[in-house]
Amino acid sequence: MTLEIALVIVGALIVIVGLVSGITSLWLMVKYFRFHRRENSLGLTGMQIARKILDDHGLGHIKVKKTGSLLFGNSYSHYFKTVRLRSRARHEAGLTSMGMGAQKAALAILDKEGDEDMRKRIRLVPLVSFGPFAFIPLILIGAVLDYFVLHGSGICTLVLGAIGLLFYVYAIVLSVLTLKTEKKAQNRAYEILERDYHITDDELSALKELFRLYNIQYINDIILSSLELLYTLLEIAIAINGNSDN
Questions:
Q1: Does 70 score more than 60 pLDDT?
Q2: Whose CA is closest to 176, among 121, 237, 231, 239?
């Protein structure tokens, strides 16, 4: 199989996975807002349920704050000892709000318990978040150094490109670890809400459906990132082959 054919195949896979991801994202959005409008049986906002769960588990020092950030969204920060909730999840007593507040509080519980996967995630969060963005800049820096310092040797581009590639691949692998801890926190949230707060079976089923869609979308993103990396590598390989032929 030639590199050009491989590039076409990978490009087609990117389109297919992108379509699946778009459909999943749309369905997730529909469920997200539908469950937001449905008041939970506890009558508690996302902030209130997160605060109660944290306090019940000896985590009164963990803050619950509103976030308007697209980067963080609904999240838990080990470093800032904070559960962050978007405005709607924080202030509304919808089913989605309850689920988000409980799941992010459950991440703090895993942190307190010293869960092994959670410890790995905490240590490697910066790399997972910013590793993929280092790939192209490192290649560009290498190309500039080769052109102006080493007069077109290509060594810097090769070395820095390889380092950037390692960052990218490592970030993709670690994204799987992030998904694993998110699923653990989801299961812990289901357990707490059912055992301690006696939510209805219908509510529990709805939350599982919502988070299942989140997990599918996360997997789609991992696959899409992997394919995009492969596509970029094939483009580089084709360019190198072209230069060699010339």
A1: no
A2: 121
